[in-house]
Design the sequence.
């Protein structure tokens, strides 16, 4: 039946989620996972003075990376929803503001935005480094997320809105009870990609005196001069995190599409 | 049975899509309990007329009074007026993320603040009425077109509307499923529901309609009882239309 075709939207440039239908991709995921875990165990065992010591340095950095990622994605989702709705708004001023925001953010490199917001904020208020990083990251990702929300909402058949409106739901209730619950499953894969991309981009905040994985690694490397070993471990840790995350997200996606199954 | 005051009073409405005039000075009264069937070639404005009654389509001039309230007046709360009118669409438009029963209970629970258990009882009774109670826990995608349209009728009825609007309810159905949907509509008509139906089903119009309205090029060409309309049409365009389809 034609109605059960899900419109796929393609936004974002993060890691591809493993498609469970694609056997080639799934096995690549397993090989990568086993390889990563294997190396993260084998290298420190073989060489506890270098690889082993990096590993003891990094854990509090992992917590900071998670903290920055989760706070930023939560804020970016809120900004993204508002931006997406704003971009679809028939009110020309709201529409203009939302569109302007998206244009500006997409035209400036993230690293430049990070510096800019960090030092701009610093001129007026004293905020903790982590908060400044979270504000800068979510400001940037909110714009991309806005495009994801916009595409997701637009992908829902207009008949769904009309049915809800005809029953007496107002615009906001229609969005909340009928459109967003359906848009969410279209949105989830690209949001998942943004989430993983954001997690990787948090490595940029290490330049803002935030002690994330990368910064903790660099602190170790600069006193031990074991640069190669340090960056090997850092790369493996990021890889392990994104592999696990992408699996969790693709499982969530599977569960959300239950009502399409005949 | 008829009240003196019409429950729907459409007066001199006009509607433009750009420079194209979709509705041309249309007036129509529907009294409570009456069944009005709107016929006409495609592009004649019959769906636009129907959709203007619950303001899914705005009008550019004229007035539409439903149960004493002007739906085109921005000061009126259109949402509460819409609650009194159920609508059935050509493409069903069931909420895809909800089960059949949830499709029926969503609006009563959220808009009328009906208790969940009460809404479920009402929903199951309505599903009984349209003959698909056994599908209560299925998702719409698992149903045939005819079943989906019967659920859509039950969903509209769940708000206990005074008026039912049907926008070509059988046009998207395979021929063998049209009967089951028309059967539900005939039952509804017998129970005294006020109905405005845009359709191409001439048999239904003959059997059920109190008034048949024929539209062409955005205007009402002829209004009459089914006997008058099918046996003694007066307008040339009506005659031509009937020749083409009968």
Sequence:
């Amino acid at each position: 039946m034609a109605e059960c075709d899900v419109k796929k939207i393609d936004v974002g440039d993060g890691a591809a989620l493993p498609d469970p239908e694609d056997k080639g991709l799934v096995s690549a995921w397993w090989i990568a996972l086993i390889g990563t875990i294997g190396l993260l165990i084998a290298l420190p065992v073989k060489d506890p003075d270098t690889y082993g010591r990096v590993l003891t340095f990094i854990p509090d950095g992992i917590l900071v990376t998670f903290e920055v990622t989760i706070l930023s994605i939560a804020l970016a989702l809120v900004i993204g929803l508002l931006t997406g709705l704003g971009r679809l708004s028939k009110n020309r001023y709201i529409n203009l503001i939302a569109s302007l925001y998206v244009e500006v953010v997409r035209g400036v490199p993230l690293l430049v935005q990070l510096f800019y917001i960090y030092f701009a904020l610093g001129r007026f208020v004293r905020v903790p480094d982590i908060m400044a990083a979270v504000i800068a990251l979510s400001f940037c990702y909110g714009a991309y997320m806005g495009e994801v929300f916009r595409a997701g909402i637009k992908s829902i058949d207009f008949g769904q809105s009309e049915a809800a409106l005809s029953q007496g739901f107002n615009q906001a209730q229609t969005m909340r009870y009928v459109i967003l619950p359906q848009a969410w499953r279209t949105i989830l894969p690209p949001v998942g990609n943004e989430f993983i991309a954001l997690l990787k981009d948090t490595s940029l905040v290490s330049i803002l005196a935030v002690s994330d994985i990368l910064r903790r690694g660099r602190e170790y490397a600069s006193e031990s001069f074991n640069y190669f070993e340090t960056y090997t471990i850092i790369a493996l840790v990021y890889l392990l995190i994104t592999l696990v995350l992408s699996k969790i997200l693709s499982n969530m996606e599977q569960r959300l599409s239950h009502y399409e199954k005949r | 049975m008829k009240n003196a005051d019409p429950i729907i009073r459409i007066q001199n409405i006009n509607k433009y899509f750009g420079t194209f005039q979709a509705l041309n000075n249309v007036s129509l009264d529907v009294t409570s309990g009456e069944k009005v069937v709107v016929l006409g070639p495609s592009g004649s404005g019959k769906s636009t007329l129907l959709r203007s009654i619950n303001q899914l389509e705005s009008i550019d001039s004229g007035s539409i009074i439903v149960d004493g309230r002007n739906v085109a007046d921005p000061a009126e709360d259109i949402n509460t007026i819409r609650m009194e009118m159920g609508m059935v669409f050509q493409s069903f438009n069931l909420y895809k993320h909800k089960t059949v029963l949830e499709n029926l209970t969503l609006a009563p629970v959220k808009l009328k603040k009906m208790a969940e258990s009460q809404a479920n009882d009402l929903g199951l009774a309505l599903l009984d009425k349209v003959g698909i109670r056994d599908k209560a826990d299925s998702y719409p995608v698992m149903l045939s077109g005819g079943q989906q349209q019967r659920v859509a009728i039950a969903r509209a009825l769940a708000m206990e509307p005074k008026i039912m609007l049907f926008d070509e309810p059988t046009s998207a159905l395979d021929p063998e499923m049209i009967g089951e949907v028309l059967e539900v509509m005939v039952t509804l008509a017998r129970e005294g529901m006020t109905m405005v139906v845009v359709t191409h089903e001439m048999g239904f119009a003959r059997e059920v309609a109190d008034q048949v309205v024929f539209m062409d090029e955005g205007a009402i060409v002829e209004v009459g009882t089914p006997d008058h309309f099918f046996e003694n049409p007066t307008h040339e365009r009506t005659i031509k239309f009937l020749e083409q389809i009968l």
